[in-house]
Amino acid sequence: MRRTTVLNLRRRTAAAVLAAVALVSTAAATAPADAVQGSAVPTAVQAKKPVPAKYPQVAAKPYLGWSSWSLQSTNYPGVNPDGPGSFINEKNILTQAHALATKLKPYGYEYINVDAGWQLGGDEYGRPIANAQRFPRGMKAVGDDIHKLGLKFGIYTVVGLGFDVYRDGNTPIYNAPGCFTRDIVYPDLRTTNGWDQAYKINYASPCAQKYADSIANLFADWGVDFIKMDGVGPGSWKGAPDDPNHNNTEDIEAWWRAVQNAGRPMMYTLSWSLSHRYADVWKQNSNGWRIDTDVECYCDTIVRWDSSVKARWWDLPQWIDDAGPGHWNNLDAINVGVGEMDGLSDAERQSYMTFWAINAAPLFVGDDMTKLDAYGLKLLTNREVIAINQSGNPARPLNQDQLQQTWYAKNADGSVTVALFNLADTPATVTGNFDQLGLTGQATVRDIWANQNTRNVSGQVSAALPAHGSKLYKITPEKTDSPSKPADLTATDVSRTTVSLNWRPSTGASSYKVYADGKQVATSATTSAVVTGLLPQTQYAFTVKGMSGGRTSDASAPVTMFTSKSGGPVRYEAEASTSTLTGNAGISGCNLCSGGSKIGNIGYDATVTLHNITVPTTGTYLVKVAYTDGDTSRQSMLTVNDADSYWVNYHGLGDNDWGTPQVTYLPMKLTAGANSIKVSNPNGYIADIDWITV
Q1: Signal sequence: where (predicted)?
Q2: What CATH number is given to the structural domain containing 226?
Q3: N or C, which terminus of the chain has less Cβ within 10 Å?
């Protein structure tokens, strides 16, 4: 159902209040363009080609620095003494810049990003001007002082034409004769951005690009090195296909063009909680994007584990392959430096830093730089951890069917970076198996946070971790094979006679051989294969070997799976009359769903249980789940016969589209005969469920 959590609504409402200072920027439209108002408007623009990055050194690696928003957002005593967001002023920004230059600049931290609240209104051309009470010397002077410290200057803007600079459509646009604000909006003055606090810009008018150019050029004149554009859609729970007013892809393209042509290297990043189905647009037209809601809790600390640090483990996976030089997945600020203010245990602080580092996320601190404690400094200045981050090699999970998770990244030198996480609220042991990680034989295991090496380790790494705790290892095999053993073999689809497999690349391999029960059944030049000619309702153990010339790697860890029974796969509708619903779970319409219906409103005490899921033989089957999710991601437990439970992660569309089904899958052990599968989450709402197929 279209249920955005109270937390998210509260978080972004608070953000809107703190940012309610003349939202001036540009915005876009994908709806059909209406007639442009006004006279003496230049000729209509032609279709624009993608603009390559003019300054490829910008965002070649994830950036490091500091941002003001975490302190602006907190209710921690004394931080915002004059009301919400009052922390932001010239004195406080420069104090933080001096502290960063002293404490963190030697480790690569260099950006000072001034977030929402610096602006108050616009000049005679509708371009942003500084709040004179907070920044009496203006933003260029602030940037100049930041540059004198050897640091870089970042600034904030939002998508859309600010209400206050519209001025009945009579505001002229700088360096664009004949162009006024009336020429760049729609006749009905439709609104846009994550708060609906700006007019949507009509890019059918060439004046619109001129407006973006005018602001980007102004920022360049101020010496800006970094631009954060906020409220962008599709994303931020807006911009679904039936909501074109919140599709801002056109003005992201316009702003990228403006930034590239402004005559100064400036990083251009997008916020917040962008929709993944537009990832190609974001990659082509920005240096990075927020994949999630604000990390801050808007409470009496800066963050809390449940609000909303832990969500990143679930929201990131669908974005992993989109990160790379020039554009990175942004997980938001890293608030691990001041234990008293952060609202986290030391174990949580380490997990927070570890996760950001292994995933090549920008490391920008949100803490009060003048108050960093010894443990916070240790976390933020560990050169090995920073090097992992700067290598630009994002990690990925081996699986997410439990709260004890292993994330890994294979490195060019044959080593593997491995992080173990216990996301549960109680202590647990977490294990990473060498076989699944593509490792053979003995290895040296370096515990990076403990600064300890252990030689002659084989088979696995394992650690007893506290609630929300972690370990970070670099595992270096004593013998490096080429080709190496393929890692992370996974079944992605099963029919009566076929199984689809994929795996991670084998170092040095030019092709792969696929085996079923030790017999070669397929070859592949890529890291996926569809094995055909299998028997129905038959268990197979699949492995893969990398090939290079006459050399063959060791076999991957096996995946053991039953094919579907004769007549299968069988689909079980969630809304079937045989299903059991509890709490507020209920049937809702869904035009694109199977049967035109789904079960929604699941979570907390509301559950759905599907019955009579029948298999002939006890064993592991690939269970596929069709769902809809307009959020960033949601999770549930699938409990089989009130016994074994598995976690499943539903990748969300992030644009409030609850009508487009997606499919996820996971291997589950089922018992011969009829099984029941209960879908639940006692701690939060989940995706809407369409069907389960076995």
Answers
A1: 1-27
A2: 3.20.20.70
A3: N
Q: Which of 443, 477, 511 is the last residue of a domain?
A: 477
Of 128, 109, 106, nearest to 119 by C-alpha is: 128
- What pLDDT was estimated at residue 294? 97
Using the 8-state DSSP alphabet, how is residue 168 labeled? G
φ, ψ of residue 392 to 5 degrees: the values are: 65, 35
Residue type, 364: F
pLDDT at res. 295: 98
**Six-digit token string for 333:** 């600020």
- Are residue 330 and residue 408 in the same domain, yes or no? no
Residue 49: what pLDDT?
77
Q: What's the CA angle centered on 113, arms 111 and 117, to 5 degrees? A: 170
Q: Flag whether 304 is in a domain.
A: yes
d(CA 222, CA 225): 9
645 Cβ contact partners less than 8 Å away, ≥ 6 residues apart: 637, 638, 639
601: alpha, beta or left, given left = phi > 0 and alpha = psi -120 to 50? left
As a whole number of angstroms, the distance between CA 317 and CA 91 comes to 39
Average pLDDT of 447-472?
98
pLDDT tens, position by position, 558-614: 999 999 999 999 999 999 999 999 999 999 999 999 999 999 999 999 999 999 999
For residue 26, tell me if it sits in a domain.
Answer: no
**pLDDT given at position 379:** 98
* Residue 213 near residue 261, CB atoms below 8 Å: yes
Claim to verify: residue 101 and residue 136 sit in the same structural domain? yes
Other CB atoms within 10 A of residue 645 CB: 15
Residue 406: phi, psi to the nearest 5? Answer: -115, 120
Same domain for 646 and 599, yes or no, is yes
Phi and psi at residue 645, in whole multiples of 5°?
A: -120, 140
pLDDT band at 50 (very low <50, low <70, confident <90, very high): confident
Q: Look at the chain and report how many structural domains it folds into.
A: 4
Identify the helix (H) or strand (E) that includes residue 651: strand 644-651
Q: How far apart are alpha carbons 79 and 98 in whole angstroms? A: 18
Token duo for residue 180: 């006024």
Q: Quote the CA–CA distance of 90 and 157 in Å, as a whole number.
A: 17
CA dihedral 73, 77, 83, 85 (to 10 degrees): -20
The DSSP annotation for 26-61 comes to: -----SPPPPPPSSSPPPPPPPPPPPPPS-TTTTSS
Reading the block at residue 417, the tokens are 């970076």
H or E element, residue 435: helix 434-437
- Model pTM score: 0.93
Alpha carbon distance 612, 621 (integer Å): 15
For residue 17, pLDDT over 60 is answered with no
Among 425, 453, 477, give the residue marking a domain's end: 477
Cα separation values, 66 from 369, 384, 437, Å: 9, 20, 34
